[in-house]
């Protein structure tokens, strides 16, 4: 074990403080700014300053500093009145940290830090106990308190927080969440009704056969990419070629049947890639059933190879292998959704899947919890459940009903146009025109 881990791999650990959510979740309660303090006055204090900014930001917002690093350093520079030369060195150091950062090293560095901290705490506790013993002051209470202090922070992510003392941090977190925490659906009428799921939460679309479950999931993936998130998409039912075609058609706004004739497709996809600055990876799971554990293993493998997915989208739940085979499908689905919820919470991911409605849902406008095939308890296990029904405007219209929402309004809905030919779940232009026309008619009627 290194003599001083925080000096031997200092830049790597600092990059984790600034950029890595899993590392911060595991280590932020045992790592402090003092770990990066220079050993002498002649040493550079920039690592110490950056660590303090990054750790304070995470404790207030439960989010890594990430892309906001420059902004937060700007604030610190103005407040501390730092000279221009030192300011330039701070910005240069941030660039170096970005180059050093390797998401695949997160788990290894978590273990290294925890083991090093445990060893330090154990040695410190033993020395204290020996000192108390020599002085004759080693009582049972002293022994218990020393052991509690030595193990503080190593009990996983189950530390208690003081609700009243944290009120200011919660207020700051909520203000910032309005601007950057929760992505949009990018479906205007739906975004006007409810908020999307946040990190560590699970969402589900419920629809009848051929009513847009897959296109809804593809639209969700694209919306995350546009908002700067990386997406890992699992296709468990449809061949990967069909899924790729739907993505291409939706992004290029081209009918799927015309993809082979579209000469500008490559250019359109290239422009989209430049716009999003995020990546999509599609996993073909049609050849064998995948369990949630296997899905998590694939996510971890991709992370270790440098692709850190923020969102995991699974098409769809009926194709997920249960952890334990059971004669009653309800119990299998309950286990699957329980595992999905834990998976999203453990890695702080946006997780979406879809479910099939009953036969009675065909042609139905309002899809509700009663229309879930096999196991209604899945609705209770998700954060948001949205039913996709037949809209009133026409064949390609859809009605989105908020079946359940743990943190917002529910049992409300909206009409939208879709474009199945282009694999597009939401036709924005057509929908907004229809809404504007109906609003104009209502206003005219009211004036009369």
Task: Explain the overall architecture.
The protein has 448 residues and is α/β, with parallel strands linked by helices. The protein is 50% helix and 12% strand. 32% of the residues are buried. The chain is globular, with a radius of gyration of 26 Å. Strands 3-2-5-7-1-8-9-10 form an eight-stranded mixed beta sheet. Helix 2 (10-19) crosses helix 6 (84-100), helix 3 packs parallel to helix 7 and helix 7 packs antiparallel against helix 8. It has helices at residues 5-8, 10-19, 21-27, 46-61, 69-80, 84-100, 106-135, 140-151, 167-180, 188-191, 213-226, 240-252, 265-276, 292-304, 329-347, 377-381, 428-447; strands at 201-207, 231-235, 280-284, 290-291, 311-315, 320-321, 350-356, 384-390, 397-405, 413-417. It is built from 17 helices and ten strands. It folds into two domains: 1-181; 182-441, Rossmann fold, CATH 3.40.50.
